[in-house]
Design a protein that fits this description.
The protein is an all-alpha fold. The chain contains 3 helices and no strands. The longest helix is centred in the first third of the chain and has 24 residues. 0% of the residues are buried.
């Protein structure tokens, strides 16, 4: 079993580590959200619309074919 001195040293080390980590988090600059980064990143609207169409076609190709009953 650990004695009191060992536990105290480990606790001090843990507290110091938490303090250092908190300082790192606090000093990081605030970054933009993923949406803000994406907005304006598409410079060629025609290519973007073509990519959307490819995606739509791909999604529809995975749907089951329904037969119409007359």
């Amino acid at each position: 079993m650990l004695n009191e001195v060992t536990i105290e040293r480990r606790l001090e080390t843990l507290e110091q580590t938490v303090c250092e980590l908190q300082q790192k988090v606090d000093s990081k600059p605030v970054t933009e959200s993923w949406l803000q980064k994406l907005t304006g990143s598409i410079s060629d609207e025609e290519v973007f619309l073509e990519a959307l169409e490819y995606g739509k076609t791909f999604r529809q190709s995975d749907r089951p074919v329904t037969e119409s009953v007359e």
